[in-house]
Amino acid sequence: MNVFLQSARRLRAMLLAALVAPAFAGIGLTTVEPIGQDHPVTVFYPTAAADQMLRVGPFTLPLARDATPARGNGRLIVISHGSGGGPWVHANLARTLVDAGFVVAVPQHRGDSYGDDGTPGPDSWKLRPAEVSHAIDAVGRDARFAPLVSLDRVGIYGMSAGGHTALSMAGGSWSPGNFLRHCEAHIAEDFNACVGLATRQTGGVLDGLKRQIALGVLRMKFDDDSLQVHNDARVAAVVASVPAAADFDMTSLAAPRVPLGLVTAGHDAWLAPRFHSDRVLAACKPCEHVADLPTAGHGALLSPLPPGLMGLAGDLLNDPPGFDRSVLPEVDRRITAFFVKHLGVVDPS
User: What is the tens place of the pLDDT at every residue in 168-193?
Assistant: First the structure.
């Protein structure tokens, strides 16, 4: 019996590998119509068309614009970008996911994305989970993709503020009031998480004044203790990379409603790990530590990394000395393997 079970497991693994093995000439790129007031959703997908070098944002990437989609593994992944971000900084992960057969959708979050960056932080975090659900709806309504994906088991990936979104999609609850109390208690140690790119601490005599001004603004904006909760039954697996997490009720993440994976960076200067990713790992015993990058900074999971980052943004996002980006393809493969494991594939018949 043991021999029979081992053979069956090997056969099942071989069939799974065959179903998700890369068999596509290129990576398609298109947009789908948004839902309501949302921005258009960028979609990467399998295609038989060959890639062409395309200029997208600050990057030139090999993609097949508006090519005819090919059937992949029948599953959808939604990527939630970080603060001020967009689809292109996750293009390398999207390519790895598409090579495994996934369709990948990236909504542009209102108020906290490139070209629309007026309300970062909790104001945007309230909107993001619904925008992820809308992105799933938008792909399902598009005639090109509706026959190719099953939306009963969708994966969510998010980085930084997108990691906050991912934790929400996994069943976590948070409040603006929790964010305020965290900053009141730890603004000196987690200043960048509380203040963002508005200013920096320098170790000088003005740091105390900066903290007091920042807390005054935060107290005016974020005194709401209403728990923010979002549930989408279609979501079946989640990965959160370097997530903003200090404002979550950690009991809500102790037993996530779906498999939850974490990617962490030991030298994260934007979201101090001990207040964010480390707290999630400590609270969530069933969580899977998909990858740990002990020498990486916050921007390691931006791949490709935007060129020419200067000033405070450069200090927080550029790689610290000693970090080797050659490890990132393996991280992308581990994230992809997590989704293959927990979402499975759709029988093409």
Answer: 999 999 999 999 999 999 999 999 99
